[in-house]
Amino acid sequence: MDSMDTDTPDQSNRDAPVRLLLRPVRPMESGVGLPYAPENWPKPGDIWSWKVGPRVGGRGTFKDRYLYPPKHLPGLDTEMTRRGNAFRSRLSLERYIRRAFPKADVRKFFASFTWTIPSTDGMSQKQCLVPVYSSDEDPMHENGFDNVVCKAGNDKCRSLMPPSDTKPLPAMPCNICCSEPSFCSDCCCILCCKSISLEHEGYSYVKCEAVVSEGYICGHVAHINCALRAYVAGTIGGSIGLDAEYYCRRCDARKDLVPHVSRFLEICQTVEYQGDVEKILNLGICILRGSRRDNAKELLNCIESTVIKLKCGTSLENLWNDDAPTIWSDFSDIGESKGNDTLQSLQDVTPIEPMPFNHEAEMHKLEEEIRDVLKGLRGAQESEYQIAEARLYAQKECLDDLYRQLEKEKSELSRCGSGTDADSLMTNVVKRLDQIRREVTKLKEMEEVAKGFGRTPRGILEEYFHLNIEE
């Protein structure tokens, strides 16, 4: 830990803030203990941890900082420590201490560390003097002139990120989509208007950096998946005629996506979960598929071979220990002038080797497939059983009704003598017997399903069970 000098205020100036020599930190950095979190409070050995957000104010200090107390402290399940038991403001922390530790010296507590944290991107010097405030002022909420907000209300907007060393050209003012009250060209997709994600170095979106006027670029962003669905990315024929490119709907400019995809495996080497790795690489496949350019084809082959290795059971650790990273590092420098040389060197130096076969992984995959098939078969059989049960019992009820009517008509016939009424009743009895014989025959045909629906004649299934069987 860097050395820290503390100027302790004397008794005549107790309200003066203690000044600590602080080390500027990077956005999203975290740590434990001094100088940005208390130590040995409330008991010896208790150490608090801290974290900062991405936003930096005009004074070079972080707008967002979080303080995490030891888990054993009382009352941490209250509303004061929402979002992962982190105190997000000095005022909420002060309220908690006064409630949970009424005898504690709050002023002395805050004097033991600093709430304000300087940023490496906001300060020119490596170390700086920053006051530790002991008043009710909350340094996390800067004055109005320091507040920079996103038009879409996105606290992770790129416009709120600390400025980089290289200053890009500003975006051209837009009076079309940007006239919408909740649309931000820095973080809202021009196609779906939803926020982009900076996860995994922002692989999932593309930014149009075409120069549209002197000193200005387009600056609009789009999800790559949205662009693929809208047929403005990838390889598209027709009047657009894209080849592994992106077409910006705002300025009609085209952007080569091969350099963008060439970063994917380098990004994947920092990803911990295989599902995320496959998601990133599959997006690259969607972008490059169908391209007629040699560099895009070579890059596509490299991505597909990597995905195959993953599906064959190669672990991420072993995958990155292969020769693939060397191949991808060559692709990361693809440009207009270097692409052909890089591809030629790949063809000469790194021939494609046979893929190793992982027997256990393949058997596990087949076992999963068989389990899914049997599960589906069981479900289909249960469904067929329920259909057959309902229709067969319905036919039984029909025959039961017919037999009851026959008994009734026979009884009426026995009580009636001769004459016209007797002849009419006899006719009804004969018709009823014929109807019963037809329904009994129908039931016998329906009982063919005992062999299974697959071996039952198609006509029976369609007529008696109302199933439409395709050829």
TrEMBL record:
Its main location: nucleus. GO terms for cellular component: histone deacetylase complex. Keywords: Coiled coil, Metal-binding, Nucleus, Zinc, Zinc-finger. The keyword Kinase does not apply. This is Uncharacterized protein. Residues 24-119 form the DUF7081 domain. The lineage of its organism: Eukaryota, Viridiplantae, Streptophyta, Embryophyta, Tracheophyta. It is found in: Nucleus. GO terms for molecular function: zinc ion binding. PANTHER family: ADAPTER PROTEIN, PUTATIVE-RELATED, OS03G0747200 PROTEIN. Residues 153-286 form the Oberon-like PHD finger domain. The keyword Coiled coil applies. Residues 363-446 form a coiled coil. Residues 359-464 form the DUF7615 domain.
